[in-house]
Amino acid sequence: MHLQIADVSKTFGYGARAKQVLRNVSFAVHSGEFVALVGSSGSGKSTVMRLIAGLEQPSAGTISMDGRPITAPGSDRGMVFQKYSLYPWLTAAENVAFGMELQGRPRQEIRERTGYFLEVVGLADAARRLPRELSGGMQQRVAIARALAAEPQVLLLDEPFGALDIQIRESMQEFLHTLWQRTGLTALLITHDLEEALLLAGTVHIMAPSPGRIVRSVRVDLDRSSLAKLRLSRPFLDLREELAADLRGLEPALAA
Amino acid sequence: MPAFQRLIRHPWSLGLLGILTVLLLWWITTASGSVNKLFLPSPQAVWLAGQQQWTSGLLLKDALASIQRVFIGFAMSAGLALPVGIAMGTSPVICRLLEPLMGLIRYMPAPAFIPLLIIYFGLDELPKVLLIFIGTFFFNTLMIMDSVKFVPRELMETARTLGGRTLPILVKVVAPFIAPQVLDTYRINMASAWNLVIVAELVAATEGLGKRISLAQRFLRTDEIFMGLIVIGLIGLLIDLGFRAVMRRACAWAN
């Protein structure tokens, strides 16, 4: 799998009201990679995600997967939203099965895969619960299980932990990291949290606002055997501070 | 007195108290003889009138006639409003095409259509059923349209990224999400349907609760008028409670 974002620009509105939200964004995601886009609000990172998902069309440039241009949403790109994306009338298990039912898979297979992916995200016991009976972190794990069960080639995570408490965030980061190691999935993570990006992603692209563009790309080769230790390790903290300074410099209000 | 407190806290206690108070005031007023009983019959007289009509079979026949009209007219209205409302709520083109038209017709009082309906369809069942349809269809449709607009974008987009196309999304995402609001819309507009069936029967009918009331007026039988009003209210209340019960069971997730 090879996801290529080439020279993509996006403008919303027409004429005098036109607003360019992305300018010449290019990067690639390969099979098994974990890539993160970091930026403040207004940097267009969510727009990048929506373009890749096929929910919006680029104004210029191309997005292609294995050479084929992306024109519409498809189950080869699974998406996890920040919140409110579980179907509130379906149980956790039914939510996980939802995508597979849309794909028209056989019942037996749906049942087995539902059980398997609930197990993977550690929620086998919560199968029959409704979303409102689950905590925020559990809800996001169900959303991730649902996306994975549809067998996407790449998982698009749009601020998946942005609405969670800090402690739950950390455990969810551990969870996502373990999941990535175990399943070998390909992931593209959008976040405004630099630490989160550096902990999880092998490649981090820093985005700047007005118009949204990538200003710096970093390969992060750190020892990830223990995220808890990594959070406090010297090279990690140095890299974080360096990039944080970069990000601060991009904020016009703070740079003065 | 914990038993007394529990009674007070029961959700129905105060409502029942309100009804009983009015009944008591009614009884005292008529028993004191200060009001001509032609204008205000006593509760006992109304009860007797009810008993009389029940034993003669009139009451049941009238009630069934009215219920049948409401049911057919409202079923047509509800059944058609659902797809049209969903179509208007999801497609801006259809919405822009139909909303002004519906907004206009909605403000035409349905009873004003009675003369036309009688000219077109005579005095049979059809004009009464159509009156209920006209009087509730546009409200049902516009309220369903509004509920569709509140379906969170994430829910639809998630389905699309999972490979869902338009029709499956309407059936598996939009329809279940709006189900509680749709039931509530029906419950609210059902009250208009009951208003309209009585109006239609007051104008022209051979049977029905409204017809009975207009006959009673001719013979100055205020006791029968009161009885008719109370029966209409009770049936309406039962239907309302029925809708609530269905909603509680079918849409437990939304409570």
Concise description?
Chain A has nine helices and ten strands.
Task: Itemize the secondary structure elements and their pairings.
The complex is a heterodimer of chains A (256) and B (255).
Chain A: E1 2-12, E2 19-30, E3 34-38, H1 45-53, E4 60-65, E5 68-69, E6 77-80, H2 92-102, H3 107-120, H4 136-149, E7 154-158, H5 166-183, E8 187-191, H6 194-200, E9 203-208, E10 213-219, H7 227-232, H8 234-250, H9 252-255
Parallel strand pairs in A: 3-8, 3-9, 6-7, 7-8
Antiparallel strand pairs in A: 1-2, 1-4, 4-5, 9-10
Helix pairs in contact in A: 2-3, 2-4, 3-4, 6-8
Chain B: H1 2-9, H2 13-32, H3 43-55, H4 58-90, H5 92-106, H6 114-121, H7 125-149, H8 153-161, H9 166-203, H10 209-218, H11 222-250
What does this molecule look like?
Chain A has 256 residues and is an alpha/beta fold. Chain A is 39% helix and 25% strand. Chain A is built from nine helices and ten strands. Chain B is an all-alpha fold. Chain B is flat, with a radius of gyration of 23 Å. Chain B has helices at residues 2-9, 13-32, 43-55, 58-90, 92-106, 114-121, 125-149, 153-161, 166-203, 209-218, 222-250. Chain B is 82% helix and 0% strand. The A-B interface holds A 53-55, 73-75, 77-79, 81, 83-85, 87-89, 98-99, 101-103, 130, 132, 143, 146-147, 150, 156 and B 152, 154-155, 157-164, 168, 172-173, 176-177, 179, 251, 253-254.
How many individual β-strands of chain A? Answer: 10
Biggest β-sheet strands, sense, barrel of chain B: none
Major beta sheet of chain A, specifics?
6 strands, mixed
Rg of chain A over CA atoms, rounded to whole Å, is: 19 Å
Q: Using CB atoms under 8 Å apart, which protein chain pair has the greatest interface?
A: A-B, 28 and 20 residues
Could you give the order of the helices and strands of chain B?
A: HHHHHHHHHHH
